[in-house]
Amino acid sequence: MKIHGINCRVCGVLLTTENRYKTAPGICRQDFIKKVRSYNRPRSTDKDKQREYVKRYGAKNDKTDKRKKQRLATSKHMYALYPEKWKARAKLRYAVKKGEIAKPNHCEEVNLNIPDCYGAIHAHHYLGYEGVHWADVKWLCVKHHGIVHRKI
């Protein structure tokens, strides 16, 4: 039995060749097994229990309510500043959600000399946000969407 002169980070036991865990340095075998068992324990499937936890967490930590209020204020502010833009985006979001307009998984901008696309796919209203043009969009990646707006 070889003593390593290192104590376990969890329980403080002196680590030896028999009680140390090889793939987790600084942790004894018993604490590693407890850790793995806690990760693999079955989670609660009781929805009422989960809702109660969320309510308790929200009451303890009021960041959720604060964030909801912020998001609502921002939405109202954007609607007040740009009502046509807001309505066009809302109509497009609803049409995509209902399946009336298909959102592709790739960028539609192929005529640029920049071959690599990255980021989420955004809708670019190339004819503007006016009432009849809300569905006239090009689906662009983040990179190409930024390039198109910088050209305008």
Question: Could you name the key traits of this structure?
Answer:
46% helix, two-stranded antiparallel sheet, 5 helices, 152 residues, single chain, mainly alpha
Topology:
Layout: E1 3-7, E2 14-16, H1 29-39, H2 47-60, H3 63-81, H4 83-98, E3 121-124, E4 138-141, H5 142-151
Antiparallel strand pairs: 1-2, 3-4
Helix pairs in contact: 3-4
Task: Please provide a written account of the structure.
With 152 residues, the chain is mainly α. The strands form 2 sheets. A two-stranded antiparallel sheet has the order 1-2. The chain has a two-stranded antiparallel sheet with strand order 3-4. It contains 5 helices and 4 strands, in the order ββααααββα. Among the domains are: 3-39, no CATH class; 102-152, no CATH class. Helices cover 46% and strands 11% of the residues. The protein has helices at 29-39, 47-60, 63-81, 83-98, 142-151; strands at residues 3-7, 14-16, 121-124, 138-141. Helix 3 (63-81) packs across helix 4 (83-98). It is elongated, with a radius of gyration of 27 Å. The longest helix is centred in the middle third of the chain and has 19 residues, at 63-81. The model has no long low-confidence stretch (mean pLDDT 79).
